[in-house]
Amino acid sequence: MKLKLDENLSMQAAGLLRDAAHDVSTVCEQHLEGQPDQTIYDVCAHEGRALVTLDRGIGQLQRFSEGSGPGVAVLDLGDRPTHQAMLERVQQLAGLMEEHSLEGALWIVEPHRVRIHRKT
Question: What pTM did the predictor assign?
Answer without folding.
Answer: 0.90
